[in-house]
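Known limitations

Structure tokens in this collection are predictions and should be treated as such. Users comparing against experimental data should check residue numbering before alignment. To illustrate the layout, the record for Indole-3-acetic acid-amido synthetase GH3.5 is reproduced below. The input appears on top and the generated tokens appear beneath it.
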Amino acid sequence: MRVFSLESVIEEFEALTNDAGRLQTESLRKILEQNGEAEYLRNLGLGGRTDPESFRACVPLVTHRDLEPYIQRIADGDASPVLTGKPITSISLSSGTTQGKPKFLPFNDELVQSTMQIYRTSFAFRNREHPIGNGKALQFIYSSRQVKTKGGLIATTATTNVYRSEQFKRTMKDIQSQCTSPDEVIFGPDFQQSLYCHLLCGLIYSNEVQIISSTFAHSIVHAFRTLEQVWEELCMDIREGVLSSRITVPSIRSAVSKLLIPNPSLADSIYNKCVRLSNWYGVIPELWPNAKYVYGIMTGSMEPYLKKLRHYAGSLPLMSADYGSSEGWIGANVNPSLIPELATFAVLPNIGYFEFIPLEKPEQQEQELENSASTIHYIESEPVGLTEVEVDKEYEIVVTNFAGLYRYRLGDVVRVAGFHNSTPELQFICRRSLVLSINIDKNTEKDLQLAVEEAAKLLAAEKLEVVDFTSHVDTSTEPGHYVIFWELSSDTTEEVLRSCCNCLDLSFVDAGYMGSRKVGTIGPLELRVVRKKTFEKILEHFLGLGGAMNQFKTPRFVSLSNSKVLQILCRNVTRCYFSTAYDI
Ligand code: AMP
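Generated tokens:
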């Protein structure tokens, strides 16, 4: 029998991070030894060398676009070693929410191993502060469609690839996070039905639930918004022991029906708790009295959901989960008591070879010269190694890992917050790509988020909230202007919305934007309010493309080429306002 000891996980982590420099060289050597014979590396003339200097000299920095033809060949069934020595076992589809279509990435067993290592590590640290006994986790997790590629490989989201693995269940058991729902719910074909059943199973086992979690915070918020709508129906199912007729998928029906027995006293208790709540504040600890914390990725593009999540979580702590991507994992959150806004991720030096491109914001003048790039313009220097990064500086991460990525630019900007032993602790800043740019103006999704937060303060007095938001650049008229789409929790006056619109315009404080607004080379910002549930339609559209709820991130910018999403938004506009903030 395997014995899982939290102390030994922590010891192992301390040993790894104490020796980060050597382990990096070691990881690179292993990666290159395993894959040196693969076509991609063979053609770069490494000639069997595995040291960092030769590697950096021979292997170019790449983006996804450079690797796409290789990954496509693997997906099409080329069985020769293309990117890796051992064959790639499946293809992961990254969320690709921003581009509007998922990207293909290689997936193999090594990625499963590192996922488990990350899960165990952060759990060990979490458990030190908030120990949980034997119990269950209400996890809002969903697998996505699994399709076969032309070459017969399974292509699905990275999270689904992980859930499919043998080790996932074992690890979840080790870390006392067994899901309250049966597999049929996680792997069900209809997301809405799975969500309903997650809630139902969570309530059936309400006394045993110790953790409420999901991959991204957005899914937790979405789940509780749904609970607000369906709670009476859930109570009825529990009272009568009969599953609602809305669940039509036979596999889900039969699996969940087995767990349902008439339980009027549980139904009454849930009912009474729900009616007593004030605007659903603290619903999580109320309905799950033994829950110790709420867990999921809460950083980056998930930050806008924190307010609502805190509302639902009441007194329970929020714990931000780890940092990774479909490309591979980066780091674990080993300081779980930090609030999500300050969360950091300690890089595990044995799961890949990491480089960091130093990014410096240029002086104003240069910034104005540079106006064609679609990524935010920084002055870049040569990449540095994991142990060479400096505290407080910003970097773009470059990944080399066991799944066939070599010097792959991840496109994420991180800041080094400090060190844990000799490995850096990273703070996620934003995706590097710009979301809003017309000419010399440059705004990232973080800038957009800050502007929306600022303007949303004007709604607080009205007890209103921004349910979700996105942006667009309208260049159909001269000059072009920013468009911000808002879905609101309920209606408000024209006066309030006009002031929100002006506030948004004034909250983009990038010098390029302010200058252009003043001289009129960018037109007044437009706020378009959309009908309730519009963002749910976007989510459904994304799921229809084969995306998974788990990896869904609301696109914070919708370009003309993402025409379907733009159409959904535009069709649902109820009101629009133009800023007068720069009128003289
Ligand atoms: P995906 O395309 O679904 O693989 O998403 C990967 C991207 O999600 C990363 O490149 C990050 O931009 C973002 N991401 C993943 N983990 C975190 C995190 N802990 N904090 C912020 N953003 C994250």
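For this record: The longest strand covers residues 408-420. The chain has a mean pLDDT of 92. Please report discrepancies through the issue tracker.
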